[in-house]
Amino acid sequence: MAGNNAPVGVFDSGVGGLSVLRAIRQTLPDELLLYCADARYNPYGDRSEAFIVDRTLAIGAWLVSHGAKAVVVACNTATTIAVGALRDALQVPVIGVEPGVKPAAAGSRTGVAGVLATAGTLRSSSFQRLVTEYAGTTQLICTAGHGLVEAIESRDLDSPALRARLLDYLLPMLDAGADTLALGCTHYPFLAPLIDELTGGKLTIIDNGLPVAQQLGRRLDKHDLRAQATPMTIAAGTPAALTLYCTGDTTALDWLAQQAFSAPLAPARTVDISSPLTAQDRPFLSLR
Length: 288
Description:
This protein is of the alpha/beta class. The chain has helices spanning 18-27, 49-65, 76-89, 101-107, 119-122, 125-134, 148-153, 160-175, 192-198, 209-222, 231-236, 251-260, and strands at 8-12, 33-37, 70-73, 94-95, 112-117, 139-144, 180-184, 204-206, 242-246, 269-270. The protein is globular.
């Protein structure tokens, strides 16, 4: 297994996992981080389960081949459908992310909570298990956020069209008495300020970035893999290095990374990560 100074690998279908990456960097500032956005094949939400497993296994293996000591699946759809297969395939700790059904149900005072997630997440058996285990008597209003991932990937966080789409999703929740909203896609936290504005702050928003970062810390400690601060990072007071990779156009990743992190970041590197179901695709660009 990799040593303490090895990086942690994080991936998503696109830029959404940056919300989890931001929480990891804030919580575990001494960890080297590799982030891979599978932009060529996003969004995963409307893909087949076989395709999502295929890409998850390929990217997980690629991160480990680049030295990752742990892998964070910063994508709700990939977690609900493929995290078990990834854990079986890799010899490093694997941490997933899932919609905050439990905290949303527990925190609702009205007994009504909204869940905004991708279609793939909502139809998965893992999501149904969460509902069965944790919803209890809380009424969950589950809505597939069609078009939201695509909007964020196109660098749209506040257009009139996006506002109208969000209102279509949120108003039925408010009309039903919801006071809590679980964001079931790692892209969606970047819309939290807009959601708060559109709902007049009536919904308590549940974002699982911090719990994932805390779980990563526990898993690193369990395997004695937590990075130690170096004299250089202590003196500078800055987090360890973060490297961005992307399987497609890097424009959205570079733009949103600059929004998510205060310090300037190097531009994302474009990589070709083939997998059995995409082996016949023409490579976008290969970085060896």
